[in-house]
Automatic annotation (TrEMBL):
<keyword id="KW-0029">Amino-acid transport</keyword>
<feature type="transmembrane region" description="Helical">
    <location>
        <begin position="237"/>
        <end position="258"/>
    </location>
</feature>
<dbReference type="InterPro" id="IPR001851">
    <property type="entry name" value="ABC_transp_permease"/>
</dbReference>
<keyword id="KW-0812">Transmembrane</keyword>
<feature type="transmembrane region" description="Helical">
    <location>
        <begin position="42"/>
        <end position="60"/>
    </location>
</feature>
<dbReference type="InterPro" id="IPR052157">
    <property type="entry name" value="BCAA_transport_permease"/>
</dbReference>
<comment type="similarity">
    <text>Belongs to the binding-protein-dependent transport system permease family. LivHM subfamily.</text>
</comment>
<feature type="transmembrane region" description="Helical">
    <location>
        <begin position="310"/>
        <end position="328"/>
    </location>
</feature>
<dbReference type="Pfam" id="PF02653">
    <property type="entry name" value="BPD_transp_2"/>
</dbReference>
<protein>
    <submittedName>
        <fullName>Amino acid/amide ABC transporter membrane protein 1 (HAAT family)</fullName>
    </submittedName>
</protein>
<dbReference type="GO" id="GO:0006865">
    <property type="term" value="P:amino acid transport"/>
</dbReference>
<dbReference type="GO" id="GO:0022857">
    <property type="term" value="F:transmembrane transporter activity"/>
</dbReference>
<dbReference type="GO" id="GO:0005886">
    <property type="term" value="C:plasma membrane"/>
</dbReference>
<feature type="transmembrane region" description="Helical">
    <location>
        <begin position="270"/>
        <end position="298"/>
    </location>
</feature>
<feature type="transmembrane region" description="Helical">
    <location>
        <begin position="190"/>
        <end position="216"/>
    </location>
</feature>
<feature type="transmembrane region" description="Helical">
    <location>
        <begin position="16"/>
        <end position="35"/>
    </location>
</feature>
<keyword id="KW-0472">Membrane</keyword>
């Protein structure tokens, strides 16, 4: 049972990333009707926001210490991070240590700006074009963004550690009544799941309980009628595009300690996230979240050695098998709406 609980936790961890990316994809498709293959790149850029924040906080000033000599006999160079010079060693060190959570403060404005630029500069020209055209242009944009990141940061993964307080593991079994050292689980993965749950709840609350969100939901259901009421629905949809990009960016920034950022991580998640969206139902926000966690848990159980010994390679294809089964029995997905992509 402890092994099953551990795999379930792993599934929630994977499902959190799937659900956050799929949520942003569904927001864009539901509001703008655009199949955005560049959304995985938003996740990747968010992860590199964590890398950038770590680099900025570690910018140092160099002083010479005449009491210490290097191997050439010159005064040794002492590098002190600027943050420590400004706030002192204790507070400055803490700020550097918490660079990953602080990177959210960088990721939000960067991703909002990038989302606005993408939507106004490119995506708006493809609203009435076939979905195949949208896929081609956004996939091309994803490749461009990927190569830009590769040019500036290189091809190798960049380790981005979690804060010291969450760098180790915790005895999760004790929290649910098991004996000590029965279920040991990485602390940051639990933080990531909690963070994902908060973001998902915040997005749904924003859409459900704010006037802005209510107008957006009305526009998703009947864009023309909302426009006839004198509401600039296009402007609100542009803002939603930026919010979707920000959600993906925050997901990527907080995922950096789990999977060291690399230039192709967006593509790695993109295909699976689209499968999640299709399984949940195109245009269905609850369906995207449900399918994200469901497929994450199933993939985790399929990766168990006991399962792989019975069916070799099942962990690589299980998500696609489930997608096929669900779409054969429920062509619109788990919670899909009638008429979406059925013309």
């Amino acid at each position: 049972m402890d092994a099953l609980i551990l795999q379930f936790l792993n599934g929630l961890d994977k499902g959190s990333a799937y659900a956050l990316i799929a949520l942003g994809l569904t927001l864009i498709f539901g509001t703008l009707g655009v199949v955005n293959f560049a959304h995985g790149a938003m996740f990747m850029i968010g992860a590199f926001c964590a890398v950038a924040m770590q680099s900025m906080l570690n910018i140092s000033k160099v002083t010479l210490d005449p009491t210490k000599l290097d191997f050439l006999g010159n005064p040794a160079q002492i590098r002190t991070p600027m943050v420590e010079s400004l706030f002192g060693p204790e507070l400055g060190g803490s700020i550097i240590n918490w660079s990953v959570p602080l990177s959210i403060l960088l990721a939000i404005p960067v991703m909002l700006a990038l989302g606005f630029i993408m939507e106004r500069g490119l995506i708006k020209h493809f609203y009435k074009r076939p979905h195949a055209d949208q896929i081609l242009v956004t996939f091309g944009l994803a490749i461009v963004l990927q190569e830009i990141i590769k040019y500036f940061y290189g091809a190798n993964p960049i380790p981005t550690p979690a804060p010291d307080a969450f760098r180790g593991s915790i005895d999760f079994g004790v929290l649910i009544g098991y004996a000590q050292n029965t279920i040991i689980y990485p602390a940051w993965r639990l933080v990531y799941f909690t963070f994902s749950a908060v973001i998902i709840a915040a997005v749904f609350a924003f859409l459900q309980f704010t006037t802005f969100g209510m107008v957006v939901r009305a526009g998703m259901a009947d864009r023309e009628t909302v426009g006839l009421l004198g509401i600039n629905i296009d402007k609100r949809f542009t803002i939603m595009f930026g919010i979707a990009a920000a959600v993906a960016g925050m997901a990527g920034a907080m995922y950096a300690p789990i999977n060291s950022p690399n230039y192709h991580m967006g593509m790695d998640f993109l295909v699976l996230s689209f499968v999640v969206v299709v399984v949940g139902g195109m245009g269905s926000l609850p369906g995207a979240v449900l399918a994200g966690f469901l497929l994450g848990v199933v993939e985790s159980f399929a990766s168990m050695n006991e399962v792989k010994s019975l069916i070799p390679g099942i962990d690589q294809i299980i998500i696609y098998l489930i997608a096929i089964i669900i779409l054969l029995t429920r062509p619109r997905g788990l919670m899909g709406r009638k008429g979406v992509m059925e013309e």
